[in-house]
Write a structure and sequence with these properties.
The structure holds two protein chains of two kinds.
Chain A lengths: L3 E2 L6 E2 L5 E4 L5 E4 L2 H8 L11 H6 L9 H6 L9 H10 L25 H17 L1 H4 L6 H22 L1
Chain B lengths: L4 E2 L4 H4 L7 E5 L11 E6 L2 E9 L10 E2 L3 E5 L26 H6 L5
Parallel strand pairs in B: 1-6
Antiparallel strand pairs in B: 2-3, 3-4, 4-6
Classes of the chains: A mainly alpha, B mainly beta.
Chain lengths: ~170, ~110
């Protein structure tokens, strides 16, 4: 199983997704979704369609030359198994972002969410806690901790009496 | 009566004729031929059987769609007439029930 690249938008085509088209000159075109396929049928040039990677690379909005790209290119040659290399790569493959994302901003986990607003949630929580502490008299029953307080006072008094008794 | 493109290197398929090869019958319960179906062709004034190898109509999602209706000439016993198929052939032919092994053997590129 191999994750291909969409011809139009250069996105990943996972197995079971998208469409493949074979032209009469034996060139194979893979599309990740019907949006790309329809644009292709309309004969649009991906280098001029603004949301594709081809446009971003050709108009300099994205890094084109970087060491991390070499790894992608090297996929086509079969690799002889080397144990240490295998172990080393497994550690790095745990999802560290490639350095070619250096020039880009970090995109939010899902559309509509914004990492900028995460701080607001934290501040809200702190505010809520301080508000509750200030207005605890509205929530707590008036006789709430009194029994325990009396007990503690009694215990303290008894201790003082004992000390007084010892001193005398 | 679809016009069809013969894709192997058989002399019957490749010699120029003033009329294109036409499908006159599909050996199928429905009259619609898909990849792996045998059909009857009228070529150069003769009748010849052929095997559909790719079509323009979109099919099951994992099957590629081709730019032309490609066909390979076949004898009655299923042996291909030509010796080579240069056009890409869908690899899902392997999984279809039927004796396509000889056709797959002469194919050079799989998609």
């Amino acid at each position: 199983m191999r994750i291909e690249k969409c011809y139009f938008c250069s996105g990943p085509v996972y197995p079971g997704h998208g469409m493949m088209f074979v032209r009469n000159d034996c060139k194979v075109f893979r599309f990740c979704k019907s949006k790309c396929h329809k644009n292709f049928k309309k004969k649009r040039n991906p280098r001029k369609v603004r949301w594709t990677k081809a446009f971003r690379k050709s108009s300099g909005k994205e890094l084109t030359v970087d060491n991390s790209f070499e790894f992608e290119k090297r996929r086509n040659e079969p690799f002889k198994y080397q144990r240490e290399l295998w172990n080393k790569t497994e550690g790095q493959a745990a999802g560290e972002g490639g350095s070619h994302q250096r020039g880009q901003k970090e995109y939010p986990p899902y559309p509509g969410s914004s990492c900028r607003l995460k701080k607001g949630k934290q501040l809200e929580k702190e505010e809520a806690i301080s508000e509750v502490k200030k207005n605890i008299h509205l929530i707590r029953a008036p006789h709430a901790g009194k029994a325990k307080m009396m007990e503690d006072k009694m215990v303290q008094k008894l201790q003082e009496d004992v000390e007084m008794g010892e001193d005398q | 009566m679809s016009r069809v493109r013969v894709v192997d290197n058989s002399p019957l398929g490749n010699t120029p004729y003033h009329r294109p090869a036409k499908c006159i019958h599909v050996y199928n319960k429905t009259g619609v031929g898909k990849v792996g179906d045998k059909i009857l062709l009228a070529i150069k004034g003769q009748k010849k059987k052929a095997l559909i190898i790719g079509h323009k109509m979109p099919g099951p999602r994992m099957m590629p769609r081709f730019d032309s209706n490609n066909v390979v000439l076949i004898e009655d016993n299923g042996n291909p007439t030509g010796t080579r198929i240069k056009v890409p052939v869908p690899s899902s032919l392997r999984r279809l029930e039927g004796e396509y092994s000889k056709v797959l053997a002469i194919a050079q590129k799989f998609v």
